[in-house]
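User: For documentation purposes, I need each entry recorded in a consistent format: the amino acid sequence on its own, followed directly by the corresponding structure tokens. There are two entries in this batch. Please keep commentary to a minimum and don't merge the entries.

Assistant: Recorded as requested. Entry 1:
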Amino acid sequence: MRLPLKQVEPGGESVIEREITETTELCLPSGKLNPAAVGWTRRALHRTGLPGWGRNKRFEYWAIVTPTSIVTMNISHHDYRANVSVTHLDRATYTEIRQGGNTWFPGAGGMRDETNREPMEGSRNDVLVRMTPRGVNTVLHAESARISVDLRIIGEPDHESMGVVVPWSDRVFQYTKKDNCLRAQGVIVVDGVTHHIEPDESYAVHDRGRGRWPYFTFWNWGAGNGLSADGRELGLQFGGKWTDGTPSTENWIRVDGRLHKISSHLDWRYDPTAWLRPWTLTGPGVEVTFTPEHHSRHVFDRWIVMSRADSCFGHYSGRITLETGEVVEFADVFGHVEEVERRW
């Protein structure tokens, strides 16, 4: 059985999304999607148990941005393959250090706690990544030959984060939790050099996924943190292509801590032959331009299993009209965009 999907053109008709305010199960006892789980939340209210083996996808991703560097940490488990990684990107030169890799047929792994409150850990050879939730805060730890990380991610007690369920059918669906405007404090050591990270000059972005994707997947994702034109704290979150044709989007804007949902499938325009040209994201009430300053490509291809990611760092500018009618304008908001293609 397929769930009824409202077909829309990117950047065209808006969709009606239901805000969920109580705890709900992602799956029915049969393992199929719980129809009551389709919607979005301001806090992590979905219990993300995924019965069975073979097509389940679980992942946690963090990116920490400081004035001088960008550090990312990833743990993923796709039943037949697990991945762990920690990376360091120098913002002055965009020199990248990447540690980690894949483990094939790893057996039952972490991230099976349906409340997502237990520590999550991944390792491969000399690389270890551990993520320990503590309420709205998270402790991040990584060890590798060239990079070590000990950070505390800090959120306000009433911090909001968007969770949304995207249904392709009752057997193929994804829960994603996107977060930004979090602060980081601690120490990062790169090639023996210690960097002290302070909360007043850093921020963190979080991406959580639990679900069962189509074998072939294509998506855009973008996020940014900064200030609006009138000086308010601003968090940007945009997604595209993978949600088109469904009744869900992962688009929202945070203004001074409050999430404002953008219930439209945005039109992403960019030149895949020239990634450093400006990108535009448009839709009802959304006029955004992203100007890249750095592009990177990562490809993993084993024929049946393939991943390609073209990512850019740069700055957002534009204007977004809230559901209240208020227009929020912004410029020079640092962030990223990406185009990802998967066979998995």
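Entry 2:
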Amino acid sequence: MSTIYKYGSTSEALKKLNESGYTYDFNINPKEIILHPENYIISKIYQYEGNSDAGDKSKVYGIESKFGLKGVFVTGTSANSEDENADVIAKLQIKIHKYSL
């Protein structure tokens, strides 16, 4: 399963992913993911938890298409928010990392 990385802020996670080539913003246009989730995988997951409120959380996903496009998708998981973005991400497969011993 993908490793979940924890960073101090969502912007820090976005910066790290951008440095790794994840430059497309799937939040702006999630239509392709919604219509063709089979073309995308989640390859990285970054999690942020607010210091003052345990319910203040977000996840930043590193997503790769089978055509080489790499981008990000951010979801909020605040206890009092309805996050439709979570429905989009639920359709994608998580890349399983295989390690040889």
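Summary note for entry 2:
The longest helix spans residues 10-19.
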